Amino acid sequence: DTGVSQNPRHKITKRGQNVTFRCDPISEHNRLYWYRQTLGQGPEFLTYFQNEAQLEKSRLLSDRFSAERPKGSFSTLEIQRTEQGDSAMYLCASSRTGNQPQHFGDGTRLSIL
Amino acid sequence: DQQVKQNSPSLSVQEGRISILNCDYTNSMFDYFLWYKKYPAEGPTFLISISSIKDKNEDGRFTVFLNKSAKHLSLHIVPSQPGDSAVYFCASTYYGGSQGNLIFGKGTKLSVKP
Questions:
Q1: What CA–CA distances, in Å, run from A44 to A66, B3, B16, B70?
Q2: Closest CB from A42, A98, A107 relative to B105
Q3: Does B99 touch chain A (CB under 8 A)?
Q4: What is the rounded CA–CA span in Å between residue B69 and residue B52?
Q5: In contact, B37 and B86? CB cutoff 8 Å
Q6: Which of A30, A37, A66, B45 has the highest count of CB atoms within 10 angstroms of its CB?
Q7: In terms of Cα–Cα distance, which of B3, B8, B2 is closest to B108?
Q8: Would you tell me how many other CB atoms lie within 10 Å of the CB of residue B94?
Q9: A-B C-beta contacts closer than 8 Å
Q10: pLDDT classification of B2: cutoffs 50, 70, 90
Q11: Across-strand partners of A34?
């Protein structure tokens, strides 16, 4: 296992711009999850995929957010028209099945100027 | 409404002694519980988990205890080492529905002093 890989590690952008993050899960992991973590809080669930199907979205995922996992391998998370409140660490995790522990990447830190 | 609570933001322990980290949950549907460790600038690392059908699970220096009636779990680290200094997150989920999205507490920062 090479681990969950996330790119970029840090993204700085101006308010109103669009940003896209990428996550490469551990190979053969069918489940892929996105979380967001802000200072002093634990990770908060955003959405998850079973292979290429997006099965659940949190109410935290506003319509400015969209996630895809087109071929059931890597995933992208896009935020349109970024706002100050979007500043956070965005974490990706994967698991072999829904009943296995999730393994996290090192995250992408988003800073909105 | 926090479903998973870690009421101690920080804990300081001497090297070689026991570290006990506590976690409470409110949702009686939760049936799987996990502990993660997080170093600065890294993602959470899975440590140990326990199913609601058990009350104890051990892995080396780490033991997790589950008290379902009290909706309480704890992580024991014995003996504590300076490298254990990190933020520890408790997480819970309902695997019976095969959903798997984790609900995390706010974390406890453990400092192990040499």
A1: 16, 12, 33, 24
A2: A42
A3: yes
A4: 11
A5: yes
A6: A37
A7: B8
A8: 16
A9: 59
A10: confident
A11: A47, A92
